[in-house]
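## retry 2 of 3
previous attempt timed out at serialization; input unchanged, resubmitting
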Amino acid sequence: MAGVHHTYDRIAEHFSKTREYPWPEVEEFLDGRSATVAVDVGCGNGRHTELLAARADRAVGVDASRGLLAAARDRAADRGFDAALVAGDAERLPLAADVAGLAVYVATLHHLRSREARVASLDELERVLEPGGAALVSAWSTEHDTFDRTEGFDTTVDWTLPGGETVPRFYHIYAPAEFRADLDASDLAVKDAFVSSGNCYAVAHSEE
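## retry succeeded, writing output
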């Protein structure tokens, strides 16, 4: 994740300004759910951590980019929600086992460079979920209009800063079947998998 956090530190301020609103798929997942502790893995500027804070006694946001964590802290202060915002990698979450009743892990899995790292991060997600805890996982998909391939592949997607500088970001673009295979290779129990708005999604649980 080292390259990822340096990339997002460079673009954090501008990136955060374009990520104001939560995804409807996250809102739908959280509808009717609550928990004592909820975790946002790859929390970015905290837009989904804010949703978790309204549904849990304690919300925790984890991100590798300190620049994005600063943006999340600003958002929490501006909007009046409480969350613990901590630096950490998705492959080695700085959290105890069996702690979270809810988690979201969106738009982050695809930044990990190897399949081994991606599956390891899914195992980490399962580790921190309490028995029966639920998580929503997402990643970019070959179903997105941007792509014309049917097999999963690695690529870079440029972020353009004001003034025209471009910053490349690594992505693994998942084919839906490959996404499901990685989930099945992990310790998570998949309850539902689907494609929406060009992203692969899964609702997964820790085993009871």
